[in-house]
Amino acid sequence: MRICPQCGTRFEEAIQFCPHDGSPTYEVESRQEPPEDPLLGLVIDGRYRIEKQIGEGGMGVVYMATHTVLQKKLALKVLRGDSSKDAEVVQRFMQEAQAATSIGHQNIIDISDFGRLPDGAVYFVMEYLEGTSLSEMIATGGSVPIQTAVHVIRQIASALEAAHSRGIVHRDLKPDNIFAIKQGADPSFVKVLDFGVAKVGGAASKLTKTGMVFGTPHYMSPEQAAGHTVDQRTDVYALGVIMYEMFTGKVPFDADTFMGILSKHMFEAPPRPTDIKGAALGPLEGMILRSLEKNSDARYQSMGELIADLDTVAAGGQIAMGGRPGVAPPTTGLADALEPSASYATAEPSGGGGKGVVLALAAVLVLLLVGGGVGTAVFVLTADDDGQASAQTEDDRPPPIAAQPREPVAPPPPIGVATQPTDVQPPPPPTAPPAPPPVPQVSIVSDPPGAEVLLDGVMVGNTPVDVPRPASGTQTVTLRLRGHEESTVQISPQTGDSVSLTLEQVTSRSSTRHRPIPPPVVGPIGSTPPPPIVRPPPTRPRTSEVVDPWAQ
Q1: If DSSP states are collapsed to H, E and C, what string results for 145-200?
Q2: CATH: 3.40.50.2000, 3.40.190.150, 1.10.490.10, 3.30.200.20. Which one for 2-127?
Q3: Closest Cα partner for 456 from 473, 475, 433?
């Protein structure tokens, strides 16, 4: 017997690849078979028959179901029983359904029903999608062809423009939450998914008023990483990261640690896409860099502005960059930017097949796992002296941005070549601003090593670790190691390059013998820039650097 690890379907025949999702199957003995899911075959609310489980993660499970009257395939997203007893988890689950439904845009996943299973578990019903995620598109080709990319970006921006017009900020936009399906003649019709951590007016403010920050580190805006107020420009930044990745195959900022990624988002300029791609992107590069501005006031102020520039570029026109530091005005049209390439939908794979080809061509069902799934980070910020955390409240949420009516997005026509007047010389690029001076660091070392290091009560790593030297005043560094006495030292602008502490072992007479070590607070270090650099951590995959918000 063989089993598909993706959908759980079992086959008596020697089938090498699952016909449902293309995943390679593996052989199991009967005693290794997973227990039968009690929901399989169950008819929910007299109309939804659960056919099979197609994914799970965190606290949620996704099933394929059939409407018994309409004979229509649907997807059911179900909260596990224990999670359905948590009022806040249920509220966020309901918020996801309400947010997606209230927008009512063709490029946003449609959610049609909400209810409870016989055991009390909460579920909602959504459309069943067959296609591929944007992350799979990027992984398959290394980047996305320019015409397909422009078409996809415009649809994403249009969907978010509609969301922003209703005061909804997605806050977790990433390639995994963007799905492309074939609709009519369009092979890359976009659906934006997973509004589980969206800020929906007062509802999101109440859910985050304790200082919780949501998002995926590789796509977080600087203000989001710092726990500051977010608005529609946070989604503009995330879309800028996605554009960067679509054209280069890489995210602009990466590091071995969660805090390392956030530090780069807040303090480092992104490498130019052309330096990575090796070919000119023309005005698209200016659009990407404008979307990635650290200061939200320097970004596109709305998705409508971004769409207008994108349409101009697609038509072969030029766009104004506003004289922003470090961004040279474009001198080529979009069609001049890259060599002509085959359409993504018709590109022929090399060789006779393989897993990558199967993933690109097989029907893949959307796995909308609760809470954003693996890759969504949640951490708690420290409160101010008066107990007020830096998360947004209902009074400071952004006003809705009015969306302009737009025609339905059609598949992109071939992009024409933009010509340049022969008598016009392109202006010289402005001088790049000097790089900011490096922040002085203090190396914290302990004997024995491996102690937890807290800077003003915030966990920053384990010894040996570098922390920023304070520009003024003092900060308290606390070292904790199980079986040893806690040690504390003050650092100031006059502290040297290294501080070494010897941790005494706990004796039987020690007053701290039975005192448990309180858990450290994890999050940004107050107002201290930048976050510390932990060295040297083991290299881990990007998806392992984040925390599942529902696993807390």
Answers
A1: CHHHHHHHHHHHHHHHHHHHHCCEECCCCCHHHEEEEEECCEEEEEEECCCCCCEE
A2: 3.30.200.20
A3: 475
Q: What's this model's pTM, rounded to 2 decimal places?
A: 0.55
Please tell me the distance from the alpha carbon of residue 160 to that of residue 169, in angstroms, as a whole number: 8
Q: Which CATH class is domain 130-339+356-396?
A: mainly alpha
| Pair 460, 531: CB distance under 8 Å | yes
d(CA 347, CA 267): 39
Top pLDDT among 266 and 385 is at 266
User: Is residue 477 within 8 Å of residue 488, measured between CB atoms?
Assistant: yes
Over residues 193-240, the pLDDT tens digits come to 887 655 555 444 444 443 445 568 899 999 988 888 899 999 999 999
- Give the DSSP H/E element, type plus range, for residue 288: helix 283-291
The band of 117, judged by pLDDT with boundaries at 50, 70 and 90, is: confident
Where do the structural domains in the chain lie, given as residue ranges? 2-127, 130-339+356-396, 442-474
Work out the burial of residue 278: count CB atoms within 10 Å of its CB; fewer than 13 is exposed, 13-18 middle, 19 or more buried: exposed
Between these two residues, 279 and 10, which has the higher pLDDT value? Answer: 10
Tens digit of pLDDT for each residue in 409-459?
555 554 443 434 444 455 565 555 565 566 788 899 999 888 888 888 777
Separation of alpha carbons 36 and 438, rounded Å? 58
Residue 50 and residue 32 in contact, taking contact as beta carbons nearer than 8 Å: no
Longest dimension (CA), the chain: 88
Identity of the amino acid at 233: R
Do the bridges between strand 533-534 and strand 465-468 make them parallel or antiparallel, or are there none, so unpaired? antiparallel
**365 pairs with which residues across the strands?**
130
Q: How many CB atoms are closer than 10 A to CB 361? A: 13
Query: Which residue is it, tokens 């944007």?
Result: 134
484 strand-pairing partners: 505
Least confident of 33-42, 368-377, 490-499: 368-377
**Which residues does the annotation mark as catalytic?**
172
**Would you say 177 and 193 are in contact if contact means Cβ atoms under 8 Å apart?**
yes
Q: What percent of the chain has pLDDT over 90?
A: 30
Please check whether residue 235 is in contact with residue 304, taking contact to mean a CB–CB distance below 8 angstroms.
no
Type and span of the H or E element at 57: strand 48-57
The sign of the dihedral angle between the CA atoms of 124, 4, 24, 67 is negative
Amino acid at 150: V
Whether 460 contacts 525, CB under 8 Å = yes
What is d(CA 529, CA 56) in angstroms, rounded to the nearest whole number?
Answer: 38
Strands 178-183 and 130-133: antiparallel
